[in-house]
């Protein structure tokens, strides 16, 4: 079992109900039918199932009628009719506002924003209307049926307005959920969960993986629980946290690090808001080191939130500062994209810098003892400066 | 021989062909009056006259610049397919008359701001071919130093406030520029251009309301090429009469494939805006290519439609007919001109190909006035290290 878990296990089936143990990923039972699909086909299947199972669900957005610019909505208009799957004019604010209204009447509105870079006109509607509706009406009204889907992330040639990762802006808004899948199988399950979740959800799809990622996806209706992170690779030396397409990059970094003898634990956060603090905390308590990686710029990115929370919870167990390998603090560049992106080399370099060297191990043990002793008397004496010194 | 050139004040388009005396093409400024092909349709204002004052020099320069623009766009198409241009490339061929007509009516102090289909407008504003191709290929001599790309051409000295990626967002910016012009008493106007897809954005109406409230010299130009990406205008807009969308703001509908109609409309609009505030111009135009290079352009419209427009309404053909009928050049001379243009474009491309890419440290410059103080560590094989202020 342990050897199976050590590998990045793609064959996963997570049953609809929470099964309690979060740290261990289960292996698949291949009895149900699976099909090899890429990301946009998996999302297409999820949308077909969602519209089929709930007669009061609607899919709309710019150009979704013919299948959408990424083909995620192919076949929906033909199957369910133009009254349930329809195009909207070019007005993101109007589209999301319209979706909130529809959801407030008890329907499921699956809104597509053509690129996450265009979601900003709708930002007011999402933050001020969708997120606060249930709260300010004292639970009389809610727009839980709203799901906003947007392709996000770099593709290699997207430039300023086709490559942005705006997840951090939305993670700052209590009242909505932010979900990001990493692969086709995850995407189908997470999208179905998001659509059926009784809260408004912003669902970002890594556009780079639309065609690139191919996986065995079960054909039946299944949901993956939200707010549960998954450990996709077990390790002992350092914990790596990421989401979406960045996990592919981090997996490569893990493989490289293994050659140097560093055993990495890789966690897919899946839901960014509310995020699964317990899983990450348990992992960091085991390894003592954390590296977070995302494409969005490092300052104010979601990695900062993870870093601060883990620091609060696992301060005494940390053996090195939390490392963030992220996009740079510039607008997403056009020709400079290879320099901007947090590549596997940047991640590998960062992880080897913060990984333990065996000969210093006893010093680190000493630090633990020292900290516990001082904690009883005055925790404020433990400064980060002194910990770095011992590193 | 002299008579055949000088006595051209009549409205009759076709003239008897006379002897083949040719004077130098570039210096003749004999006035010509040309009738626009279609009348203007107006909303809340009196339409301008259909007779446009022009000159032989202007007519020939129209032809030359439009042919240059067309050639440039076709060359950009081949460069994109050769993967020298990456990212996005939105081509303007078919719509050249709008860029040219507008330029002829205004000065470099008047500002133009547009969306991403900006290559030809940049050229019209005085940009050079070399800057265009260098920017398209992401080289450092491009107009935006290689950091913008196809969608973000700017030219400060000609008041060209550029290409914008988010549609509709440039219109409130344009109205802000108009406010600044009015405030500084510059007697200049701003042309804020957008497409029929963007015409449904809420920001436009906000900008219109503000412009009308404060009498700003802003002219909103809707380049209606009838398709917003792949969506036909009747499927996106309840009212496809975009010139009427201003409601309380006057509007004018113009045949956007006729450069002289565009010129007349822009001249009229400029006078109107300086006195009375905003006005909307709807340019009825067409693009031959798809929305961008990744769009074949034939899934949402028939090839017959495209070739029909090309045959009947092509702006360059129209100017060519005018040139020939006014006897300003022979077919052969025009062909030679086109060959010259082709060579010019090829030279510019060759020169741009030799230009280097921007320095890696340029990634961090101009984020704020002086970068952001971030550091990049050279873990990647590319060894990027930047010491920043």
Automatic annotation (TrEMBL), chain A:
InterPro entries the UniProt entry points to: THDP-binding, Transketo_C/PFOR_II, Transketolase-like_Pyr-bd, Transketolase_C
This protein's UniProt keywords: Oxidoreductase
Pfam families membership: Transket_pyr, Transketolase_C
Cofactor (UniProt): thiamine diphosphate
E.C. designation(s): 1.2.4.4
Domain of life: Eukaryota
Catalytic reaction annotation: N(6)-[(R)-lipoyl]-L-lysyl-[protein] + 3-methyl-2-oxobutanoate + H(+) = N(6)-[(R)-S(8)-2-methylpropanoyldihydrolipoyl]-L-lysyl-[protein] + CO2
Presence of the UniProt keyword Oxidoreductase in the record: yes
Domain Transketolase-like pyrimidine-binding span(s) in chain numbering: 37-212
Entry-linked PANTHER family: 2-OXOISOVALERATE DEHYDROGENASE SUBUNIT BETA, MITOCHONDRIAL (PTHR42980:SF1), 2-OXOISOVALERATE DEHYDROGENASE SUBUNIT BETA-RELATED (PTHR42980)
Name of the protein this chain belongs to: 3-methyl-2-oxobutanoate dehydrogenase (2-methylpropanoyl-transferring)
Source organism (scientific name): Brassica napus (Rape)
Lineage: Eukaryota, Viridiplantae, Streptophyta, Embryophyta, Tracheophyta
Automatic annotation (TrEMBL), chain B:
Cofactor: thiamine diphosphate
Reaction(s) catalysed by this chain's protein: N(6)-[(R)-lipoyl]-L-lysyl-[protein] + pyruvate + H(+) = N(6)-[(R)-S(8)-acetyldihydrolipoyl]-L-lysyl-[protein] + CO2
Pfam families reported for this sequence: E1_dh
Signal peptide range: none
Domain Dehydrogenase E1 component: residue ranges: 65-360
Keywords linked to the UniProt accession: Oxidoreductase, Pyruvate, Thiamine pyrophosphate
Highest taxon, organism lineage: Eukaryota
EC numbers for this chain: 1.2.4.1
GO molecular function, one term: pyruvate dehydrogenase (acetyl-transferring) activity
Record-level GO BP terms: pyruvate decarboxylation to acetyl-CoA
Function: The pyruvate dehydrogenase complex catalyzes the overall conversion of pyruvate to acetyl-CoA and CO(2). It contains multiple copies of three enzymatic components: pyruvate dehydrogenase (E1), dihydrolipoamide acetyltransferase (E2) and lipoamide dehydrogenase (E3).
Subunit field text: Tetramer of 2 alpha and 2 beta subunits.
NCBIfam families xref list: PDH_E1_alph_y
Name the UniProt record assigns to this protein: Pyruvate dehydrogenase E1 component subunit alpha
